[in-house]
Each structure stands twice: as C-alpha cells, then as structure tokens.
C-alpha cells in the first residue's frame, strides 16, 4: 500500500493544478483567440489522461465510489471540447466550459479527494 501513497498525493496535487488550468483557460478565452489557448487545453487533456490512468492503477484497492461514472461523463465533455476546438468554435468551447467542465470537474475532483484522503491520512 505504501507504494501507492505517493501516487495518491500526486494525483490530488495534479487534480488541483488541472482545475486551476481549466479556470485559467476559461478566463483566457474571454481575452484571446481560441488558437492561442490550444497549448493550455492540450496540457489539461494530458493532465486528465494522467489522472485517469493513475485512477485505473488504483481502482482495485479503492472503496466503492462514483469516480468511474464521472470519468465517463468528463471524457464525453473533453471529446466535445476537442470537436469544438477542431471546428474553431469559440462560443461552443466557452459554453462547454461553463455548463459542463466547470461543474463536472470539481465534482469529480471532490470525489477523488474523498476517496484518496483516508489512505493518505492514516
């Protein structure tokens, strides 16, 4: 179990950073062209992918939770965001960020923290 504790701590830290990046992306879209945020969006996708992979490595030792269902929902949001980016649809990207990602990601992050913290605290 000890070998997983560092991974759990890193997941919580990365989840915090990812949320900050999502908020920053949303704020930047008000001021710049969509193309100027592609790098930041790619970083968010990479971080989410890493969090997802780490979750699946830990899944068998974790108690019952809603993380997988929430991951499925967020995967759909990210796929829609990728499509909106590919279509250069700034208003759709902002809409998806406001109505989906900025609500669903914090809920997932909270569930992740609630699931992992008992392992880290003990």
Report on the architecture of this protein:
With 122 residues, this protein is mainly alpha-helical. The chain has a single domain, classed as Four Helix Bundle (Hemerythrin (Met), subunit A) (Up-down Bundle), CATH 1.20.120. Helix content is 83%, strand content 0%. The chain has helices at 2-29, 38-58, 67-86, 90-121. Helix 1 (2-29) packs antiparallel against helix 4 and helix 3 packs antiparallel against helix 4. It is elongated, with a radius of gyration of 15 Å. The chain starts with a helix and ends with a helix. The model has no long low-confidence stretch (mean pLDDT 95). Residues 1-118 form the DUF8042 domain. Pfam families: DUF8042. It comes from Brevibacillus fluminis. InterPro entries: DUF8042. This is DUF8042 domain-containing protein.
Kindly list the characteristics that best describe this protein.
single chain; 122 residues; mainly alpha; Four Helix Bundle (Hemerythrin (Met), subunit A); 4 helices; 0% strand; elongated
Question: Summary?
Answer:
This protein is 83% helix and 0% strand.
| Main sheet properties | none
CATH homologous superfamily descriptor: Nucleotidyltransferases  domain 2
CATH class category label = Mainly Alpha
Please name the CATH architecture: Up-down Bundle
| Residue windows where pLDDT falls under 50 for at least 5 positions | none
How far the N terminus sits from the C terminus, by CA atoms, comes to 11 Å
**Topology as a string of helices (H) and strands (E):** HHHH
Secondary structure: helix percent: over 70%
Strand content: under 5%
Task: Write down the overall geometry.
Answer: elongated
CATH topology: Four Helix Bundle (Hemerythrin (Met), subunit A)
Average of pLDDT: 95
Number of strands: 0
